[in-house]
From TrEMBL:
SMART domains linked: Rtt106, SPT16
Molecular function as annotated in GO: nucleosome binding
Annotated InterPro entries: Creatinase/aminopeptidase-like, Fact-SPT16_PH, FACT_SPT16_C, FACT_SPT16_M, PH-like_dom_sf, RTT106/SPT16-like_middle_dom, Spt16
A single Gene Ontology CC term: FACT complex
Location (main, coarse): nucleus
Record's protein name: FACT complex subunit
UniProt keyword list: Chromosome, Coiled coil, DNA damage, DNA repair, DNA replication, Nucleus, Transcription, Transcription regulation
Family under the similarity heading: Belongs to the peptidase M24 family. SPT16 subfamily.
Coiled coil ranges: none
Amino acid sequence: MVFNVSLGFQNLQAKTSNAKSENFSLLLADTVIVTDDGRDVATSASSKSVKDIAYSFNEDEEEEEQPKVKPESIAKDAVFSKATLRSDNGEISKEELRKQHQAELARQKNEETARRLAGVESGSGDGRAAVRAASDLIAYKSVNELPPPREMMIQVDQKNEAILLPIYGSMVPFHVATVKTVSSQQDTNRNCYIRIIFNVPGTPFTPHDANSLKNQGAIYLKEVSFRSKDPRHISEVVQLIKTLRRNVMARESERAERATLVTQEKLVLAGNKFKPIRLHDLWIRPTFGGRARKLTGTLEAHMNGFRYSTSRADERVDIMYGNIKHAFFQAAEKEMITLLHFHLHNHIMVGNKKTKDVQFYVEVMEMVQNIGGGKRSAYDPDEIEEEQRERDRKNKINMDFQHFVNRVNDLWGQPQFKGLDLEFDQPLRELGFHGVPYKASAFIVPTSSCLVELIETPFLVISLSDIEIVNLERVGLAQKNFDMAIVFKDFKRDVMRIDSIPSTSLDGIKEWLDTTDIKYYESRLNLNWRPILKTIMDDPQQFIEEGGWEFLNLEATDSDSENSAESDQGYEPSDVEPESDSEDDDSDSESLVESERGDSEEDSEEEKGKTWEELEREASNADREKGNESDSEDERRRRKMKASGKGRAGPSSGASKRMKFR
């Protein structure tokens, strides 16, 4: 049994000079648990000192200073939680504590930004990928390799990736990578035209390469057109050129991406002593390329990395432990999938895609359900049994993933992996909020080290350590939602925007940002961040001297505007004449002003609008003068009765009396 013993006293006298605290009341309470062996006092382990368990309220309304509630006095007591006290004073103190913490974060952030900008040298280069030189595009090394001309017609050489065009009686080869666009058109005379546009160096989307800079006086062929009487041949040629060009461009793009990849270490497979940890029947995102049917695979944890493979030999992905920046495990609760997600330091190739995020997942229930057929009752035994099977399947999948995660965490806890600091992180759903990070709305959840969205693609993984500041935009009382702009420490990186966050999530987001030591600001409008960051990088010294990020502080700008308004009140225009010493001049000026004011008042009275009664009276007088009294209500009724064929006389005086009586 459990007993809560409470003992209260009132009207106790205290020896104090303060009249308000002379009389006081006291309540003592304790919780006792009766066990088989005796009793246990539930609060025996808690501190009972006054500074740890007591707090006071300021009841003096005339006093300006409010008592400060120390957060440590609440946090030390096991009985009290860190939640806000159920009083106005507690709410204010919590907001004040958050503002004080944010002010300290602003000071630290400005100092950190100043040190980082001072140590960063302006890097050269615009970040563009290397463009393949035109000299590398060789279709034929000599004229002898040209295929023998069959006819003077456009030919497509699939083997050498070239197009042969008849120009002045000769077949001239062009590499397919030099083709920008190809199109066909047919006119009314059954003539078909093919138009080929080439990539010319120096145009906006085709920069100069080393070969074009050497031959600056060269003349380039920009466009060529041919006419044919055979529309079928033209359409076939256009289709062949487009297909060949698409394949070549995809291959070159993959080659360029692989050239920028960081070389990974080789995977060390588990031997006989160490059996690999396996998780079966997983799907992977991004998927492997190709038109073949997608297959599930197995994820294995080996000595220094993971390996995912399917039954096909070419579908295999290796993820090294040293390349993993963040690892996430998200069990299915309100979602349709249970997943493992890896965010990497360096890109890897999954099929022919270059990616930094790799995800393995299992569908806990069918994504598509057949809703055809008759309606099924909610109390249908088959329906209830099917729902129970789905719950059991979901729980089993979650348990399998959890077992795999626990074993991998134990493996990462070994001494050789201590430097990697790896551990599976789980999203904190109670702190999640809805927003639009890309094009569709999604449920975004924080973790201990990241802000993630792992269900919809493209994935969102933002490391908290990479965040400089967060600006909450379109924040106002009348707004139903607001936006979040995340500025990264790397100012060359684009600002990440999460739009259309419900305003009900504002307090929770501010509390989470404050507890993770991230400085946030609020603004009423959306900001254009690219020119702002460019200005900061161009002149970092001026940015620091002007207060750093404090230009985003609304409270500071509001206080400045108030001060300027107060200063404006004392402003006197220079064109006002000084006061005259003579009373006659004052009286003359006063009389002149009064006369002008009187004239203006008379004019304004004349210009005032008339009442409805006056307007109606004027209208009736005007009708009477024009002889339009027949348009009265009685006349209109008389004409209407005659038109209906009733032939009755007009309303008599009795009718008017009845009207008056009514």
